[in-house]
């Protein structure tokens, strides 16, 4: 999916919501555990109930890898279901990969060619040759971790190197990578106050913003400092949406949480006109 197709979807749905599919067998309603593939059954019900409210889904691969082959199969079925039934929805493999070039090439093949995701999250720590193999897929998007939502972000990402924070080096240096126009960046919603500075460096890039909901980030603050003329934001909520209810009404409850965020987003978009 191209960036302009994504922007078109945002305007069409009046939403820049990304729903995180962090599916945990310990948290899904117990009646689903009787199903042959409980993870996929849960995801399918969530997708069926919420697809009109969001423009992206983000399965975090850890939740699938944790269940071995059964987990990978559930991930494969989930992305297959999305691509077949909702090809207009942007898909993000939150896998946080990145290795020497030769190995990154294989990660890129796995997530872009085999699983057919539109994008993947990548850790920038190993530098240019670890990121460019993902960018070589010019019809896909590489989402670099820049300033993450967790407290540990302050251990390294905000440390000064030559008088400038490390996350700023990530943003600036990555702009020189081959096919950098296909880069997006992860910025935590809990770090909304940094977005003013971030937008000075990457005014036009799309930002994937996790941390609204369970981590306490504010949608209003993120929009205030981070929105650009193309919207430029994908705001993610995972647990706050998908675990809204432990009962048989879980999908309906998820849609209601997603709907509340979508309403807020529609208001933001209206105010921009
Ligand atoms: O900085 C980051 C990068 C990734 N994440 C991931 O996003 C979701 C957030 O889940 P919630 O349940 O809405 O808190 C999860 O998959 C994280 O691993 C992040 O939170 N922060």
What key attributes describe this structure?
binds ligand LLZGTKA7; eight-stranded parallel barrel; 45% helix; 273 residues; TIM Barrel
Explain this structure to me?
This is Orotidine-5'-phosphate decarboxylase. Residues 16-254 form the Orotidine 5'-phosphate decarboxylase domain. Keywords: Decarboxylase, Lyase, Pyrimidine biosynthesis. It catalyses: orotidine 5'-phosphate + H(+) = UMP + CO2. This protein has 273 residues and is of the alpha/beta class. It has a single domain (3-272), classed as TIM Barrel (Alpha-Beta Barrel), CATH 3.20.20. The chain is 45% helix and 16% strand. It has twelve helices and ten strands. Strand 4, helix 6 (128-135) and strand 5 (141-147) form a beta-alpha-beta unit. Helix 2 (38-50) packs parallel to helix 4 (68-85) and helix 5 packs parallel to helix 6. The relative contact order is 0.15. The model has no long low-confidence stretch (mean pLDDT 98). The structure holds ligand LLZGTKA7. Ligand LLZGTKA7 is lined by residues 20, 22, 60, 94, 148-149, 186, 188, 210-211, 213-215, 236-240.
Helix coverage percent of residues?
40-55%
What is the CATH class name?
Answer: Alpha Beta
Shape: globular
Which strand order spans the largest sheet, edge to edge or round the barrel?
Answer: 1-2-3-4-5-8-9-10
CATH topology: TIM Barrel
Bound molecules: the ligand O=c1ccn([C@@H]2O[C@H](COP(=O)(O)O)[C@@H](O)[C@H]2O)c(=O)[nH]1
Subunit organisation of the chains: single chain
Portion of residues in beta strands equals 15-25%
Which structural class do you get from the secondary structure elements?
alpha/beta
Number of helices: 12
The total domain count is 1
Number of strands: 10
Round the mean pLDDT to the nearest integer and report it.
98
CATH architecture: Alpha-Beta Barrel
Low-confidence stretches: none
SSE sequence, one letter per element: HEHEHHEHEHEHEEHEHEHEHH
What is the alpha-carbon Rg in Å? 18 Å
Largest sheet: 8 strands, parallel, barrel
């Amino acid at each position: 999916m191209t960036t302009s197709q994504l922007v078109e979807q945002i305007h069409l749905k009046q939403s820049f919501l990304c729903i995180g599919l962090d599916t945990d067998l310990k948290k899904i309603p117990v009646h689903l555990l009787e199903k042959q593939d409980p993870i996929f059954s849960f995801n399918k019900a969530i997708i069926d109930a919420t697809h009109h409210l969001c423009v992206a889904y983000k399965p975090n691969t850890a939740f699938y890898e944790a269940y071995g082959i059964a987990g990978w199969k559930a991930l494969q079925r989930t992305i297959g279901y999305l691509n077949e039934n909702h090809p207009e929805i942007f898909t993000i493999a939150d896998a946080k990969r990145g290795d020497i070039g030769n190995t990154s090439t294989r990660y890129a093949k796995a997530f872009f060619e085999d699983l057919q995701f539109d994008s993947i999250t990548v850790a920038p720590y190993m530098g240019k040759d670890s990121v460019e193999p993902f960018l070589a897929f010019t019809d896909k998007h590489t989402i670099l971790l820049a300033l993450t939502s967790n407290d540990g972000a302050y251990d390294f990402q905000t440390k000064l190197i030559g008088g400038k924070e490390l996350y700023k080096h990530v943003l600036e240096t990555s702009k020189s990578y081959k096919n950098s126009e296909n880069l997006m960046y992860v910025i935590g919603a809990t770090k909304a106050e940094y977005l003013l500075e971030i937008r000075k460096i990457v005014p036009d890039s799309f930002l994937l913003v996790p941390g609204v909901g369970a981590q306490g980030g504010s949608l209003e603050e993120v929009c205030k400092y981070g929105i650009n003329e193309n919207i430029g934001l994908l705001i993610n909520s995972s647990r706050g949406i998908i675990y809204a209810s432990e009962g048989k009404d879980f999908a309906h409850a998820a849609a209601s949480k997603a709907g509340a965020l979508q309403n807020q987003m529609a208001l933001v978009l209206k105010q921009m006109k």
